[in-house]
Amino acid sequence: MLRQFWLHDLIANFRNRAELLLPVLFFVMVIALFPMALSVDPALIQAMAPAVLWVAALLSALMALNGLLRQDHADGFLEQCILCPVSLPGLIFAKVWAHWLVTGLPLVIMSPVLGKMLFLSWSGVGALVISLLLGTPILSFIGAAGVGLTLGLRNAGLLLTLLVLPLYIPVLIFGTSSVMTATLGQPILSPLLFLAAMLVLCITFIPWAASSAVRFGLE
Prior knowledge:
Number of strands: 0
Strand content: under 5%
Order of helices and strands: HHHHHHHHHH
Distance between the termini: 25 Å
Structural class: mainly alpha
Number of domains: 1
């Protein structure tokens, strides 16, 4: 049943192309406009590229949270899942991964091209791809818990941002650090291990926390 829900969410997200493309277009536009606004000095752009790429990815993930769980709340699907013998943590786990596949994975796929636009070395591009591959699912899982807490509120976008943005900061720090250390030719294993550990913790605990948040939000 959870696999069917996952496939249904994946198809539904692909049908909503406008909402699907908005975070990706935002990510691309920020990276494309950054060199024009700052300087034409490749060394300066390369030095600031890790922070710019990761901040743009974080803001894109934050924009994409509006499509997570809210439509299911609007059409009463979440209430039916609570009443039916369905594992709500498992359902949220499936929905988060479906959401990441259509919002986070495109950022990972496009990051090498955008990284080279900002004069990153190939080692820095590799670190960027791996850090985004580990970090963007964390952003989706944390966002799911925040969305669950704000389901019953009107115009909850600002509150959602205030809830999840402080929790995004460690991901931003370790993601940026991994790319910066790679561009300097230093080992990047430590920040990537921190991101991997955070991802494991999110996979283990966030579905249960998000399901409790959804129940609380619906009440």
